[in-house]
Design a protein that fits this description.
This protein has about 400 residues and is mainly α. It has 16 helices and no strands.
Length: about 400
């Protein structure tokens, strides 16, 4: 019981840090119109605060996780939050888009390493049958960020200016730093030093590579729409800016519900769960093209988009860890990092694609384009299930043969 309590407290500390990081990652979505107006730039240029942040995580997660593999986990968590606080301080004091983007990239580097080692630490804190739920609990910090952090940051930005939102994030970062120092145990499993050969195996292994692509498409598809959700709600659906902050709260609640559901659904059979999640997610995004011009129908569809947006995260992350343990066990942390990179590659691609669609054919078309991205994940997840089934039968046959021979 005492061990369970300690692991729960450690997971709570990780969730607090994930809350700070999640707020930073998605805060720009609510602030885009304000940043655009204040810095006198197009809203799609302001959208680079989402795209470049995601690219910073994409590049930083695998590279920095590998470089810091021998640093004690608790010390690494400490330095991650210091860099995170520094990056958001730069963003809070930015007077140009260039300075703001620099602050975003610095924050993103901390994000990448944290989410990589955070997932493996969470999985190691509990028994094997609870790993997806533990990762889900850590990611709850991200979902709570979308429920409270992003809407409150948006409200603060509307009330006192967008820089105030980043000042608030710095304060949350300091709280997260203290939580890590107090609640996370010092005797964490040390990171495993991975060779370049092992890292190469990760990105050349067909099974893992397929999952990284699925992560990019399945998670990123929603961000074609979500990145430009604020202007979509004001320009297409017809809500006022103040109402958008409330809608973001509802969206965040939907994400929280979906994240908890996703952890439970993925505990036993991650691939089967992911296939169903992505299928429904694609359908919802296609339906949104029709419903978003209407307030009630649009809100209902957006709520379901929120439920499905993060539902796939625990399953994707835990299945990548399972595959890494099977094929390249010495590079499990880096595999987790590469999948975090894949999540953010999806965000970067989705946000960039959303900007192109918005500038060319209009905001409303981000919906079905996002649906096509997720549909790609449906097809590839189906393929992965077929391969897994054949691989499982092959292992059973091999084991039986070994028993007969012995």
């Amino acid at each position: 019981m005492e061990g369970t309590k300690r692991s729960t407290l450690a997971l709570l500390a990780l969730a607090i840090s994930a809350f700070a990081i999640g707020t930073t990652e998605f805060i720009s979505v609510g602030l885009l119109p304000l940043i655009s107006q204040d810095l006198q730039i197009p809203v799609t240029t302001a959208g680079l605060t989402v795209t470049l942040y995601a690219l910073g995580v994409t590049i930083g997660a695998p590279v920095l996780t590998s470089l810091t593999s021998r640093v004690p986990r608790k010390m690494l968590l400490f330095w991650i939050m210091i860099i995170f606080i520094a990056g958001n301080s730069i963003a809070a004091s930015a007077t140009t888009i260039s300075m703001l983007l620099i602050g975003r990239v610095v924050s993103a580097l901390a994000h990448g390493v944290f989410m990589s080692i955070g997932s493996t630490i969470a999985a190691d804190l509990v028994t094997e049958d609870r790993r997806a739920s533990a990762i889900s609990l850590m990611f709850t910090g991200l979902t709570v960020a979308t429920v409270t952090g992003v809407p409150m940051g948006t409200y603060l930005g509307q009330l006192l200016g967008w820089r105030t939102a980043f000042v608030a994030i710095v304060v949350v970062g300091i709280i997260a730093l203290i939580a890590n120092l107090i609640l996370v145990p010092a005797n964490l499993r040390k990171g495993i030093k991975t060779t370049f050969g092992d890292q190469l195996k990760l990105v050349t292994n067909g099974r893992l590579l397929l999952m990284f692509i699925i992560t990019t498409l399945g998670y990123g598809g929603t961000f074609v729409v979500f990145t430009y959700l604020s202007p979509l709600l004001t320009d297409i659906t017809g809500f006022s800016a103040s109402t958008v902050a409330i809608i973001l709260v509802v969206y965040g609640i939907a994400i929280a519900i979906g994240n908890v559901m996703g952890g439970k659904l993925a505990n036993k059979n991650p691939l089967a769960a992911l296939f169903r999640m992505f299928s429904i997610q694609a359908i919802v995004l296609f339906i949104m093209f029709v419903t978003v011009p209407f307030k009630l129908a649009g809100l209902i569809t957006i709520f379901f988009m929120g439920i499905l947006a993060f539902m796939n995260v625990p399953g994707l992350q835990v299945y990548v860890v399972i595959l890494a343990e099977r094929f390249v066990p010495s590079a499990k942390d880096v595999a987790s990092a590469i999948n975090i990179a894949a999540f953010n590659a999806g965000i970067a691609i989705g946000a960039y694609l959303g900007g192109i669609i918005t500038d060319s054919i209009g905001l409303i078309h981000t919906t079905w384009v996002g649906g096509i991205m997720v549909l790609g994940a449906v097809v590839l997840t189906g393929l992965s299930r077929v391969i897994e089934s054949k691989d499982g039968n092959s292992r059973v046959g091999k084991n039986n043969q070994e028993v007969v021979c012995s």
